[in-house]
């Protein structure tokens, strides 16, 4: 049969595409783009329903992520073994530069993510998500540059990505393992041992290895270890002959299998994974998702953490003589490849699915991965396209080069980082309105620290961070996690932590207390004033519902007191309350025997009739305490108090009246007042009691919930009933 040139041409084009280095990356990009389109089209429900369709014991999504991806990891394992024994990683000099760079590219993104999510254990599980590099995507982008990228850079990127994949496999095996089933795990070890014995006995036929690999996958899947690990273990057991072999050598079992899997994995397995997991529906998705620390942690980890980690580690290794720069590659090109390492699509999404069970967190993960990968791909490609080969002009940061090219590159680097900083800060400010009052925007606190050596000081955003301490509750000793109260013991720690902030010009204290023990009130007041003098900081007090009696005594520690117009303020007096049961014991047939050495030892005994002299003695004590309280008010509010005769009578007023009486300095709320004082860039940092890794603080200030035992709970319940009643009575005096 004769074939016309027209009929032969399409086949030739297809073959050239499949054989090209960029084909795998382009196919994966197309699959991801198609998934996004379908997920936001009229076919979205069909798409998501299909992924949750059960085929046997697993849904389609689980078959893809647990079974199909095991084939991907099998190929990864084969590549790792071949490179370690017969490739670029066969010698230590060749391993040093990509190995050190890969370590930096794993560690720094994880640190950035952990810094942004350290206060949320659920989100912190995803620390490894931004640590991976997608070899297909990255090499695909690099291949689009053609001859502009020297072959040494391609080898460096491929080797680094393989080591990155090895690190990801180890991370998955160690940190993302569910409950272990020892019988299945034991069976998996036995199967792996069989594979090892076959390798040592020089079994070269692939069929026994493949059958054993399927059995190994079954046991690993049921053991609790993620099933994809089975693919890597099986790959490491498939023999590679000691003699060096070419990539297309069909004599070695490893080369045979790698050659057979390369195209199916690149054009079937990975695109299916991308299509199944990149579909994000933007319907009903709030803008706040973009500003969530989970999304930002992944985005910044991939885009900034990868480039700084890889390039910084590589630069350090080269400058210290541990490794050599890739032949023919300039520093600019090496930096461009470091940016490309932030493309973490396949492995990053895969680790994200293992980290987070909830749909919302998985969506935030995918948004972070897609955004970070896209930024890395675009910026890396543009920089590499504009870069020149190894010349002194491309090395302005490390050589005294005054050429115009060197200066232009230096300007580009500064403008690039400055633009990244401004854009990130702007986006965060836009999203701040959607955040709660005291929620910190982690991006705005973390990013200046990362870039402060690159951005001139005069260009940095000026922000003021104010520590906030919440003092809420009745004032008395003996508080527990079940009945939190205010005392010097329970507040000293957070007060010291707040005042220890060297960069804060002031400390804000939020008070909501009806009062209580006068001694504890004065001790807390005194501690605040001592810390303010020691650290030379202003103290601003903000009254919420009530600052009465002892609560107002603590409020006097503020240089300025601000309240809401409806807040309750005042009650400058002293009250004592107790219960009397003089006839109770007789009625229930109980005789109480009391023996004293001192005539006044039974003063105000609740089981004896009240005596007039005892009442007079108590009132004398109250007058002394009241006088001390009045002196404190006059000292702290000197020149501000009005002439109202009821000022020290124990009456209390609304915030509006209290302002006219001089008991407070003004009306308003915390954020508005601090913005007016320190500018719109002010940030509030809530100071909380320290939390353990396993214990969680119950509301208020008290013991860790992890340390509360049933016996303690029972004791606290019995001991606290009357105290709770008394505390409720204190709040009730102010209608609360």
Structural summary, described in words:
The structure is a single chain. The chain has 736 residues and is α/β, with parallel strands linked by helices. It contains 27 helices and ten strands. The chain folds into three domains: 246 residues, Na+/H+ antiporter like domain (Na+/H+ antiporter like fold), CATH 1.20.1530.10; 70 residues, no CATH class; 242 residues, Alpha-Beta Complex (2-enoyl-CoA Hydratase, Chain A, domain 1), CATH 3.90.226.10. Strands 3, 4, 5, 6, 7, 8, 9 and 10 form an eight-stranded mixed beta sheet that branches. Strands 1-2 form a two-stranded antiparallel ribbon. Helix 18 runs antiparallel to helix 19. The radius of gyration is 35 Å and the shape is elongated. It catalyses: Na(+)(in) + 2 H(+)(out) = Na(+)(out) + 2 H(+)(in). This is Na(+)/H(+) antiporter NhaA. One of its GO terms (cellular component) is plasma membrane. InterPro entries: ClpP/crotonase-like_dom_sf (IPR029045), Na/H_antiporter_dom_sf (IPR023171), NhaA (IPR004670), Peptidase_S49 (IPR002142), S49_SppA_C (IPR047272).
Give structural attributes.
sodium:proton antiporter activity; 8-stranded mixed β-sheet; 10 strands; 2-enoyl-CoA Hydratase, Chain A, domain 1; 736 residues; membrane; elongated; 3 domains; cell inner membrane; alpha/beta; Na+/H+ antiporter like fold; Na(+)/H(+) antiporter NhaA; two-stranded antiparallel ribbon; 27 helices
């Amino acid at each position: 049969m004769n074939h016309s040139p027209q009929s032969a041409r399409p086949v030739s084009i297809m073959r050239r595409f499949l054989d090209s280095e960029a084909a795998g990356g382009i196919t994966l990009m197309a699959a991801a783009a198609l998934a996004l389109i379908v997920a936001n089209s009229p076919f979205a429900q069909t798409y998501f329903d299909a992924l949750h369709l059960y085929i046997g014991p697993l849904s389609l999504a689980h078959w893809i992520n647990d079974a199909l991806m095991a084939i991907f990891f099998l190929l990864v394992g084969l590549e790792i073994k071949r490179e370690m024994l017969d490739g670029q990683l066969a010698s230590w000099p060749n391993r040093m530069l990509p190995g050190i760079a890969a370590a930096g590219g794993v560690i720094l993104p994880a640190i950035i993510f952990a810094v942004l999510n350290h206060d949320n254990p659920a989100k912190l599980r995803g620390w490894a998500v931004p640590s991976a590099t997608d070899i297909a995507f990255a090499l695909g982008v690099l291949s689009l540059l053609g001859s502009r990228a020297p072959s040494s850079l391609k080898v460096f990127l491929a080797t680094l990505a393989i080591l990155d994949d090895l690190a990801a496999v180890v991370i998955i095996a160690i940190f993302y393992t569910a409950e272990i089933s020892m019988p299945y795990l034991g069976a998996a070890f036995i199967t792996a041992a069989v594979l090892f014995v076959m390798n040592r006995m020089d079994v070269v036929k692939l069929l026994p290895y493949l059958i054993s690999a399927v059995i190994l996958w079954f046991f690993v899947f049921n053991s609790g270890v993620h099933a994809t690990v089975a693919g890597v273990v099986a790959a490491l057991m498939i023999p590679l002959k000691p003699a060096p072999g070419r990539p297309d050598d069909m004599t070695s079992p490893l080369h045979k299998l790698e050659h057979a899997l390369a195209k199916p994995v690149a054009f079937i397995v990975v695109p299916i994974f991308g299509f199944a997991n990149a579909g994000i529906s933007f319907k009903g998705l709030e803008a706040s998702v973009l500003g969530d620390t989970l999304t930002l942690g992944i985005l910044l980890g991939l885009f900034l953490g990868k480039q700084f980690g890889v390039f910084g580690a590589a630069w350090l290794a080269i400058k210290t003589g541990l490794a050599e720069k890739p032949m023919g590659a300039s520093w600019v090109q090496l930096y461009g490849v470091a940016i490309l390492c932030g493309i973490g699509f396949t492995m990053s999404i895969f680790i994200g699915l293992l980290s987070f069970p909830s749909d919302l967190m998985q969506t935030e993960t995918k948004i972070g991965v897609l955004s970070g990968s896209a930024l890395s791909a675009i910026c890396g490609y543009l920089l590499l396209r504009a870069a020149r080969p190894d010349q002194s002009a491309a090395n302005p940061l490390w050589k005294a080069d005054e050429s115009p090219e060197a200066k232009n590159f230096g300007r580009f680097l500064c403008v690039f980082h400055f633009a990244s900083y401004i854009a990130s800060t702007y986006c965060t400010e836009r999203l701040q309105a959607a955040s709660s009052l005291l929620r910190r925007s982690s991006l705005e606190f973390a990013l200046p620290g990362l870039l402060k050596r690159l951005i001139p000081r005069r260009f940095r955003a000026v922000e003021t961070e104010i520590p906030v301490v919440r003092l809420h509750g009745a004032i008395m000793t003996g508080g527990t996690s079940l009945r939190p109260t205010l005392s010097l013991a329970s507040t000293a720690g957070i007060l010291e932590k707040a005042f220890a902030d060297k960069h804060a010009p002031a400390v804000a204290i939020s008070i909501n207390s009806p009062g209580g023990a006068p001694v504890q009130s004065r001790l807390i007041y005194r501690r605040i004033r001592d810390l303010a003098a020691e650290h030379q900081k202003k103290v601003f007090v903000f009254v919420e519902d009530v600052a009465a009696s002892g609560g107002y005594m603590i409020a006097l520690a503020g240089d300025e007191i601000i309240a809401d117009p409806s807040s309750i303020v005042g009650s400058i007096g002293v009250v004592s309350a107790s219960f009397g049961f003089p006839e109770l014991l007789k009625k229930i047939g109980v005789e109480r025997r009391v023996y004293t050495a001192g005539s006044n030892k039974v003063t105000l005994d609740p089981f004896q009739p009240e005596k007039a002299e005892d009442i007079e003695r108590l009132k004398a004590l109250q007058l002394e305490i009241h006088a001390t309280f009045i002196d404190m008010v006059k000292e702290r509010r000197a020149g501000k108090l009005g002439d109202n005769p009821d000022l020290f009578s124990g009456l209390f007023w609304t915030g509006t009246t209290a302002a006219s009486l001089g008991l407070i300095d003004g009306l308003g709320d915390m954020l508005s007042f601090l913005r007016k004082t320190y500018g719109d860039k002010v940030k509030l940092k809530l100071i909380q009691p320290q939390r353990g890794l396993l214990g969680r603080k119950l509301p208020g200030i008290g013991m860790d919930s992890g340390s509360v035992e049933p016996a303690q709970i029972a004791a606290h319940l019995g001991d606290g009933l009357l105290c709770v009643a008394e505390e409720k009575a204190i709040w009730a005096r102010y209608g609360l």
